[in-house]
Amino acid sequence: MFSRTVFASVVLLARVSLGYKQPIDYLEALEVLGTSYANPASVVDGLILSLLSVDVVGRVDATTTFVGQELNTEYLFGLFLQGADENTTQLIGTPHSVTVHSSVVDPPIAAVSYTSEMVSSTVNMTVPLQIDMFIAFDDDMKIVSYDAILRRIGEFMAYTAPYLAPQIAKEPNTTSTNVTELIELQTATDVCAVSTQYCTSDNQRYESHDMCMSFMTVLPFGKSWQGGMNTGWCRYIHKNMVKYRPEVHCPHIGPTGGDMCIDRDYVQVVDTNPFNKTLLAYNSSYNAADLKGVPASNVVELVKVQTEMVSMETVAFVRLVHLHEMSSPSILQSF
Ligand SMILES: *[C@@H]1O[C@H](CO)[C@@H](O)[C@H](O)[C@H]1NC(C)=O
Ligand SMILES: *[C@@H]1O[C@H](CO)[C@@H](O)[C@H](O)[C@H]1NC(C)=O
Ligand SMILES: *[C@@H]1O[C@H](CO)[C@@H](O)[C@H](O)[C@H]1NC(C)=O
Ligand SMILES: *[C@@H]1O[C@H](CO)[C@@H](O)[C@H](O)[C@H]1NC(C)=O
Ligand SMILES: *[C@@H]1O[C@H](CO)[C@@H](O)[C@H](O)[C@H]1NC(C)=O
Ligand SMILES: *[C@@H]1O[C@H](CO)[C@@H](O)[C@H](O)[C@H]1NC(C)=O
Question: In the record, which residues are listed under signal peptide (predicted)?
Answer without folding.
Answer: 1-21
